[in-house]
UniProtKB/TrEMBL annotation:
Membrane topology summary: Multi-pass membrane protein
Swiss-Prot/TrEMBL keywords: Membrane, Transmembrane, Transmembrane helix
Record-linked InterPro entries: MamF_MmsF
Protein name (Swiss-Prot/TrEMBL): DUF4870 domain-containing protein
Subcellular location: Membrane
Record-level GO cellular component terms: membrane
Pfam families: MamF_MmsF
Transmembrane segments: 20-38, 45-65, 71-92
Domain of life, source organism: Bacteria
Organism whose genome encodes this protein: Paenibacillus protaetiae
Principal location: membrane
Matching PANTHER family: UPF0132 DOMAIN PROTEIN (AFU_ORTHOLOGUE AFUA_3G10255)
Amino acid sequence: MVQPSLNPEPSSTGLDPKAAALLCYLLWFVTGLVFLFIEKQSRFVKFHAVQSIAVSVLLMVINFIFGWIPIIGFVIAPASILLWIALMALAYQGKAYKLPIIGDFAEQQARKL
């Protein structure tokens, strides 16, 4: 589900919040953790940071478990990369795209933090 955030609140990092949200996904969970710790005010950036962490961990587990199966592994790896690129593009457009289950979790955590 796409929730428009045409003008997300400013980021405490000094970056444009859309750019900060994109950077949350750049190096999988690593940049998600970085932005989760340094962002103090933007729920938009925090949402993308938490979702980045959750999605990257889930995709790593899925790829580890199923990646060695020839046909499934051949499909999962490119699908994971396409999902990651799509999430970065949506974040840069200022949209808070909530993935099923993970998106709700990320939204709840962004409110708490």
